[in-house]
Design goal:
Elements: H1 2-10, H2 12-18, H3 22-73, H4 80-83, H5 98-109, H6 141-150, H7 161-169, H8 173-182, H9 205-224, H10 231-241, H11 255-259
Length: 269
């Protein structure tokens, strides 16, 4: 092979006869011709598809305009602003309490501040291992009491586990008081910008879930703390809600509102 290359470099005609014969030249021409036709066919298909899309777009626009004119004549509301529900007065809106309003103001401004219920320091809690595959419906009050002691929410543990848990919940009494007051309001709408879709900030979800967890603890503590004035009402809530039969399904938007009026016993201790 090296000899042929050397011969071709010094004798082009001889090298061309030995290396680039007539068959090789014809094959190269066929490949070039096939490539050109492939490019032409692909370009033609793209142009055809673009033309069909343009025709369908114009036809769809014409059909839509015809339907819209007839729908508007019938009194139909087609705009987003027309479909938006009327504003809820703050006095009737569960989501208008300061702990939620401040969250959305901070999210819009891009600032950060201590979150509601942060004083309870629930993050990092690890429940004891369960024998079954599912976690028990009733919170493990001793483990929660120990968690509050370790995190400094309460100074020390006593023999009354339920009282210790209720004393720990007093650390977030201002937030719970707002939820109890908001729970009396008939409507709830958070200022979530629906036009942002999945990118819309929802800073209220975590505090609501934390509040639901706190109410769950309060119910269990009152249920075990028989001397508390809230024991009877908490027990009635557990029975009426079916918490002893099935795992309660918590809605992020309605949990605090539905539990708020029932948690007034927290302030009774």
């Amino acid at each position: 092979m090296a000899i042929l290359v050397a011969v071709r470099s010094h004798h082009p005609r001889f090298g061309r006869t030995l290396v680039d014969g007539p068959n090789t030249t014809k094959t190269t021409k066929r490949l070039r011709r096939a490539f050109m036709w492939t490019v032409i066919i692909v370009a033609a298909l793209i142009a055809l598809w673009a033309g069909l899309c343009g025709v369908e777009r114009r036809r769809g626009t014409r059909v839509w305009n015809t339907y819209r004119m007839s729908a508007v004549a019938r009194g139909a509301r087609l705009g987003i602003e027309d479909l938006r529900a009327p504003a809820i007065p703050d006095a009737e809106n569960f989501a208008a309490v300061p702990i939620f309003q401040n969250l959305f103001v901070e999210a819009k401004a891009g600032t950060s501040a201590p979150k509601p219920f942060a004083a309870l320091k629930m993050e990092g809690y690890r429940p004891p291992e369960s024998k079954g595959s599912r976690q028990p419906l009733i919170p493990d009050l001793p483990s929660w009491r120990d968690h509050f002691v370790v995190r400094g929410v309460i100074p020390e543990a006593t023999e009354d586990v339920g009282a210790d848990v209720l004393r720990a919940l007093q650390a977030v009494e201002p937030e719970l008081a707002q939820l109890r007051e908001a729970g009396q309001r008939p409507h709830s709408r958070f200022p979530v910008d629906a036009q942002l879709g999945v990118e819309a900030p929802v800073p209220h979800l975590t505090p609501i879930l934390t509040a639901a967890r706190a109410y769950h603890l309060a119910i269990a503590a009152h249920h075990s703390y028989s001397l508390s004035p809230g024991a009877s009402s908490s027990r009635q809530w557990i029975v009426s809600s079916g918490a002893g039969k099935t795992r309660p399904r918590i809605s992020a938007g309605d949990t605090a509102r539905s539990h708020g009026p029932r948690a007034t016993a927290l302030s009774a201790d």
